[in-house]
Amino acid sequence: MSTRSNPSLAALADLLHHRWAVPVLATLHRERGAKFVTLASCLGVSRDSLRRTLAALTDQGLVRRNPGYGHPMRPEYVLTGRGAALGPRCDRLMQTVLRRGVADVCLRKWPLPVLLSIEGGAFRFSEIEAEVAGASPRAVALAVKELEAAGLIDREILGGYPPRTAYRVTAAARPLIDPLCELSRSLG
Q1: Which CATH number covers residue 149?
Q2: Low-confidence ranges of the chain (pLDDT < 70)
Q3: Structural domain contains residue 117
Q4: What is the spatial distance between Cα 12 and Cα 166, in angstroms, rounded to a whole number?
Q5: Which of 38, 99, 117, 158 could serve as 34's disulfide partner, Cβ 3.0–4.6 Å?
Q6: pTM above threshold 0.85
C-alpha cells in the first residue's frame, strides 16, 4: 500500500461530508426524482439538513431542480447524468448499510473512507492517516473507534517493542466492501 493519499477516498469523503448525500442520491435514483417534502418525509431528515445536502449535491453536479416541475406529478429534484451514474451505487450501498444496521456509523464523513483504506492494505494508524487525505488525526481516530465498536474492523496489538497496532476488516464488513469500492471507483 502506498503512503500517498487516494483521490477516490478524498472524493468519497467529499460526498459523505453531508450525512444525507448517499440516502438522497439513492432515493432520487429509486424514485426517479422526488419532491422536497417527499424526500424529507421518506428519509426522516430535517428541512435544514435536506436543504444543505441538496445544495451541496447541486454544487457537485449530481442533482438539479427539475426544469419541468410545476405539475403535481412531476418531481422537484432529479439526478443529473453524473448523479444517475452514482444513483444505483448509492442505492446498493444504502441497502447493505441498512441491512447490516450500521447506518449511524457509515453515513458519517470519515468511517467509510477509513474502512476502504484498511481494506486496501493500510493496516497501521499512520498508513490509514496518510491514505485518507484531509482527515485530521482526531477524525481518523474517531472513525477507527466507531468502526471497531460497530464490529466492522478488528484492532490487533502486535508484539515487539514498542508494541504496534494493526487494523483489519472483519467478516461483518465484507458485504459493505463491494458496493463501497464500486461507489468510490465511480467518484475517482
Answers
A1: 1.10.10.10
A2: 1-7, 72, 188
A3: yes
A4: 23
A5: 38
A6: yes
